[in-house]
Sequence to fold (352 residues):
Amino acid sequence: MASSKKLTIDDIAAAAGVSKATVSRYLNGHRELMSEKTWERIKTVIGVSDYKPSAIASNLKKRTTNLIGVSIADITSPFSVALIMGISRCLDENGYTLLISNSGDSLEKEKNNIDSLISKGASGLLVNTSAYDNDFLIETSCKGVPIVLCDRKIRNYTLDVVTSDHEAGMRTLIQHLREKGYSRPVLFTQNCEQNSTRMRRRESFIQAVEEIYGYSPKEQEDIFIIDHSEGISTVSQLQRLKKSLKEDDVPAVIGTNSITTARAYHGISELGMSMPDEIGLCGPEDWDWSNELNWPYMIRPHVTTLKVPSTEIGYRAAQRLLQKLQHPDLLPEEISLHCVLNARESTQLKGK
Fold:
């Protein structure tokens, strides 16, 4: 019975010599609707073949529960905490319960988690996806499961998504640096290939520098990739930046997220560089916690940030999903939320 072809319920029915409806009754636990002999025969065929029924197919008719599945790419990220806070608040207000899973930035784990969420009866999914290339989410959506993406998009398919306005936000940061007298903005980022948020911030950086500074940023000179798994640390990239500076250059580092910006702060301090006069620093503030707990307020100099409404992203995503449950024919839309610049000491050149 083993085959490279994925087994279907029809294959099981044919092998057991019963109808597809009888196999379906077996899978749904209706032992009283068949003889003991038939039950054991189907059980044996399924055991030998290692057949696994589709969680999506078997649960489409159960999507009337008050359960909402939430798949998070990296639950250790402060952004994820804020996102879940917003989701939870909206669902609590509307009598829904959330089931949370963490993929650890693994597409395979994300697939397994989503299958599990659906098998538990989730009426819809809120997904902060681990992969930009994600055929599995496309397939799941095509099978009728309502999905709203949180912050990160996927390639080649339009799903509802709630995110922040990366383009306007980056333009605001670059304009601020120009007005403060920094001659060379640079972007520090982790790898972007499977993360649409980093990709959009990178593209927005290039476009904003072209518009405001009048030159095109170069891949190896103005965009610095941080990859600790490859031994490319923030400090080593800052050292490379220092070596490339012209005599009158005053650079400013833009971190692609809060974690990268925080690492850049520690790297600048480790190298003994003077901030803000020798180098500036800024980046998105996506933790969305109270001011007393946000690291940009707890250090000196205070760090200039672009406030990302992470909690509101979660709230609006959950709100949109509930709308889709009530109105399944709603066309997908992208909701982009405004970011606010908080200019602080780390980009305040003397005399500016």
The longest helix spans residues 196-212. The longest strand covers residues 67-72. The chain has a mean pLDDT of 88. The two ends are 76 Å apart (CA to CA).
